[in-house]
Amino acid sequence: GKVVCAVQSDNVEGGRQAGRLMAEALKDTGGKVVIINHPGVTSVLDRVQGFREVIALHPDIKIIADVPAWGQRDRAMASMEDILLRVPDVAGVFGINDDSALGAVAAIESAGKLGTIVVVGYDATPEAKDAIKAGKIYGDAIQYPTLIGVKAVQAILDYFAGKDVPEKIDVEVGVWTKDSK
Fold this sequence. Notes:
- This protein is α/β, with parallel strands linked by helices.
- It has 6 helices and 8 strands; from the N terminus they run E-H-E-H-E-H-E-H-E-H-E-H-E-E.
- Strands 3-2-4-5-6-8 form a 6-stranded mixed beta sheet, with helices on both faces. Strands 1-7 form a two-stranded parallel sheet.
- The radius of gyration is 17 Å and the shape is elongated.
């Protein structure tokens, strides 16, 4: 088959949203930030690109590590434990998905540093929303799968109606914080 149109979240902008959350949380202190990554996945590469773009605008915030945990909670926890041993004054963590963020939270909590390290995630799953509400995660970039579905169905209808369909449709992303409903 031939791909006519890809409908997807704007992951670069989602990464920017995550970067803005981190910058907002660290605006008074700055500090060292870690990315818990899943390299090799296009959507994640885009997220990290957007995050790095925003953090680069804040010279008081430095990305000091970019470690793979492959989107898995247990690996993210182990990576964060290692980071905390080497860099005890880390100020923030960007988890490229909620399993990465929640794994980092588990390590931070185990080290007795909950509340001193800012965690920003991606996806706003129900478990992450609970962690955000509890103050364990500062906030998440959030995707809108229903909107992706609506736009995909509209693209299909347009295609079969003989209308021009773009090769790519980026769908907006947002943020989820303790103030979100």
